[in-house]
Amino acid sequence: MRLFRPPVWAQDLLFALFITVMQVQGTLASDNAGQKTLPGTGYLLLILSGAVIVVRRRWPVPVFAVTALASVTYYALDYPDGPGWLGLFVALYTLTALGDGRRSLFIAGGGITVLTVCWLAAATDIEPRAAIGWVFFRIGASIMSAALGESVRSRRVIAADAVERAVREGQARADAERLRIAREVHDTVAHAIAIINVQSGVTAHVLDKRPEQAREALRVIEETSSRALEEMRAVLGVLQLPGLEGIDDLADRARQAGLEVDVAACSLPPDVPKVVGSAVYRIVQESITNVIRHAGATRVTVALDCGADAVLVRVADDGAGPAEAERPGRGLLGMRERCRLLGGEFDAGPVPGGGFAVTARLPLVPA
Asked: Whole-angstrom Cα distance, residue 38 to residue 75?
C-alpha cells in the first residue's frame, strides 16, 4: 500500500512552519534567553527567516539573501543566541543543491564570508567568552550546509550524465545496426531489381513469339521477388524501435539516478502503432532526462492513458522546473515536434501547487 504524500507546496509549508517554531521556541528555551530579553524585532527576524523557507525551491538566491540579512541583523542587535540559524542553513543547502555549481557556489562562498565577518564583529564583546564557540559553530555549519547541497547536486549531475551516456551509446549502437541493415536492404533490393528488370525485358520481347520462354521469365521474376521479400523481412525483423514496453526500463534507470519514479499505466491495447509507441517512449525519456538535469526534483510520476482514439502521456515532477530566464531547450522543442508530426498535441509548464508537467496526446492513427 502506498503511503500518502502531500503535494510539494504542502511539504514546504509544513517544513517552514517547523523551522519557524524551532527557531522561536529554541531561542526562548536557551540559557541566553534568561539573561537577555527578546524584543518584538527579534521575534520578527526569527519568524521571517523561518517563514521565507516556504519559497526556497522557486527563489533560492533571494531566500538565502533574506535569511542571511536577518541573521546579521539579529546578532548585530545582540539578541539572545539560539537556533535562529536553522533557516539560514536550509537556505544555503537549497542554494547549492539547486544551483549550477558555479554561480551558486560563488554566491554561497561570498555570503558565508560576509556572515563570518559580521558574526565575529558582533561577538567581540560576547560574555561569557566561551560562548564564542557558537559563532564558530555557525560558520562551520554554514560551510557544511553549502558543501552538502553541492554534493547532492554533483551526484545528481553525475547520475544524469551516466544515464545520458548510456542512452548515447545505445543510440550509437542502434545507428550502426541501422546502417548495416540499410546496406543489406540496398544489396538485396538492387540485386532483385536488376534480375527483375532483365527478365521483364525478356518477357516483353518474347511474349508473342515464344510464350514458353516468357512464362519461364515470369516464374524467375516471381521467385526473385519472393526471395527478396523474405530476405528483407529477415533483415528488418531485427530493427526494433523502443516502444511502450521500454518505459519500465526508463523508470528503473531513473531510480538508479536517485529519483523516486511512479509509473501508472492503463491497459494499453496491443495494436498501438509502433510509431506512436516509439514517440511516447522518447517523450518519457526526454522528460525524465530534463527532470534529472534541471528540475531539482525528487519524485516523478509517469501516467499513460489510452482512449479509443489516442494515447495520453503525462510526466510530472515536484521540482521547480526551468528557470524563467532559461530558453526552451531542444528537448522540449523535439518533443513538441514529434507530437506535431503525428498530428498530436503537446503542452509543458508549471502546475498549480508546485512542480512541472509535460503532457502529450498522440492519436492512434497518426496523421
From this structure: 12
**Strand duo 299-306 + 260-265: pairing:** parallel
Q: Mind listing the pLDDT tens digit of every residue in the chain (367 residues)?
A: 455 667 778 888 999 999 999 999 888 887 554 566 778 888 899 999 999 999 998 899 999 999 999 999 998 888 888 888 899 999 999 999 888 888 889 999 999 999 999 988 888 877 777 678 888 899 999 999 999 999 988 888 887 777 778 777 777 777 776 777 677 677 666 666 766 766 677 677 666 677 777 777 777 777 777 777 776 666 666 556 677 778 888 788 777 666 788 888 766 666 677 778 888 888 888 888 777 766 667 788 888 887 778 888 888 887 765 544 444 456 678 788 888 888 888 888 888 777 788 899 888 875 5
Beta bridge partners of 345: 361
The dihedral over CA atoms of 228, 229, 234, 236, expressed in degrees to the nearest 10, equals 110
